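Please predict the structure of the following assembly.
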Amino acid sequence: MSIDNTAMFTDRYELTMVSAALRDGTARRRCTFEVFARRLPDGRRYGVVAGTGRLIEALAGFRFGEEQLRSLADVVDDATLDWLRSYRFSGDIDGYREGELFFPGSPILSVRGTFADAVVLETLALSILNHDSAIASAAARMVTAAGSRPIIEMGSRRTHESAAVACARAAFIAGMASTSNLEATRRYGVPGAGTSAHSFTLAHVGLGGGTGDGERAAFAAQIAALGVGTTLLVDTYDITRGVATAVEVAGTGLGGVRIDSGDLGVLARQVRAQLDDLGAVNTRIVVSGDLDEYAIAALRAEPVDAYGVGTQLVTGSGAPTAGMVYKLVEVDGVGVAKRSSHKESRGGAKSASRAARDTGTIVEEIIHPAGSPVPHTDGLTTTALQIPLVRGGEPVDDLPSITDSREHLASALVSLPWEGLSLSSGEPAVPTRFALP
Amino acid sequence: MSIDNTAMFTDRYELTMVSAALRDGTARRRCTFEVFARRLPDGRRYGVVAGTGRLIEALAGFRFGEEQLRSLADVVDDATLDWLRSYRFSGDIDGYREGELFFPGSPILSVRGTFADAVVLETLALSILNHDSAIASAAARMVTAAGSRPIIEMGSRRTHESAAVACARAAFIAGMASTSNLEATRRYGVPGAGTSAHSFTLAHVGLGGGTGDGERAAFAAQIAALGVGTTLLVDTYDITRGVATAVEVAGTGLGGVRIDSGDLGVLARQVRAQLDDLGAVNTRIVVSGDLDEYAIAALRAEPVDAYGVGTQLVTGSGAPTAGMVYKLVEVDGVGVAKRSSHKESRGGAKSASRAARDTGTIVEEIIHPAGSPVPHTDGLTTTALQIPLVRGGEPVDDLPSITDSREHLASALVSLPWEGLSLSSGEPAVPTRFALP
């Protein structure tokens, strides 16, 4: 299977439901499914939508070819296999744009089509949106904590190899500066970054004289290959000696040093002083090592120039999935909803708007029936949140690029009430009003 | 890029290191890299190795073709591009087999080759092993908690679409019975499972008379398509009525009912009593809804026949990555190790054995220099833990299948001291002895 074929990233029950629905005609009923999160992860003030662009790309590959159909021969009957063979999503999708904020109940995606057309997209849509939004939501908090300092995303090794590529993309939308992941650079144009690991220094053991540990030889080799603008990893052995050697080898024009272990605040101060004493006043300090948004914030007063984040980014900093669901809300114009305990949904297709003061600060999110006017908001400006994404199965023209989405998020975060950007636990930054019948 | 090409699932710095190492000849030094976890996730008693088989498959696709090389033209110099063009891993890999237990420091993988040959595999090896082992480690606890009751893996929608396939594979190795993920069934032969969602019932609104909610029509359609052996989802509206309708429509031969919300223990008892009263004494009860190992264990005394797990499985039940690192430990026969604070490594290539009593119960794991005899253990039987995986760049014959790995893990878990299978937090189930110089 080529990565371009996405049809099998699907739960078996989507197809058995289609099979049953084809028999009794339900398959052809006009339906609206909505994607939303019932709540935000504990204490989070906002979520960030990501993955929409990947989902729209993945739609084009959602085709059941003969290879896929052979493997489904004992899952569904021949009539269903025939239906799958000719399946192309032909409905419409509206949704929150990538880089948009979301809150509990926000109708992030609305998928309209026949029951069968829309139900088979459930697993793929949720996989992409739940993963990418979880990463972007965590990343945005880290970017906020870092202020104007850039963050390098370097978490590929801590997550599934394909998920890593999506993580780098989501992190860029959320405002991170660059990624270590080569495929994310190739596929999405996310700026690349990265220099060397401890193994590179260790591989030089016994070379280059000096202490025999080869650190000097390693630095010389890296500079020969990458120039003095490179960032040298100075904490393989003794950091103070590492910094001294780095400046000896590179000169005071050394681009940067990276510290990957120990008390990063203390070490950053110590290394800054040492670099300044040596005359390397423009040499940047990059720190890494299990940083999350809180550790980044704690380093705000330290002389750090850039952060590298890995594990905490790709695991969503405690919230590795966004908790979004894909629910049928309307059938042939009738609102439907599950009624059993604890997991109630609100029936009927919905639209959403955000109401803001003249200053731009958001006051509330309003969810109202699709097609009905936005409820009155006294003296506030309302902006519709859903945009058209797919019409008649085809992506609309001029979908936002990841750079557009990144800029959109940066503006959206500025529009939150001030407490919304707090890292501390609390309620969602703005209330959601359900103006529904 | 086809999914078969895995070369770009790589951190940029692996290639810049190669570039620098090619210039000064370090690239050709004979090296051993080892994969290990410094610690287990908080309170976990053991880890489960998974991903080894996927890694060996991915090695075959680790090739830099012209498409990949074009995107690397501004990352490395021409000499490095040439080296990458002809890159084939030609070294040896030994490692713990899939389904093997691991503990802090266990040398899960040993990669031997030139520095350049081995360093470029770092990101891919860690991505696969960290992800798959995290999932298998969580899954094994859930399987233990479920005892003889089967678990259906249904977490695809809560994780990246490709990661979902690997999750299903890892969960099967860990003892789960089946998966909802179609691609995992197609690619790896993991048994498939799945029937219907609430949306299927809701899609029947207004059909089939009765209460007008269409539940009866939905059940009839599912049975028509899948037979009475299917599992009906009974909690869309009122569970008691759902169960009654299910048995009316299917008869007492109904395969199963699924409950996906509410207090699962209370509902399971109530539904069991109702089913028995209706004569459906063999109808199974499947429960799902944010189950983790603790929730599964809490249901042990309830009349539950099978569990569906999703979110908690694919997020590693609180530990979404296994924390493994890929460290250079030996260069041209000399042991090397990072010396800076908190992240020390033990230099030198290592082997590992497990010492057990006659009863089979493991007493300790012993890590000793590779090539040296296993240290003496009084009256205990020792078993070597690493097996050959790759020789001269090629997978060895007769690598274990996922079914072999699943059986191996089942035996290995039985060999733990009894407290090792406890779900409560504690120390690793067996101590590790580092019999190193």
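Residues 122-146 of chain A form the longest helix (25 residues). Chain A touches chain B through 111 residues (CB under 8 Å).
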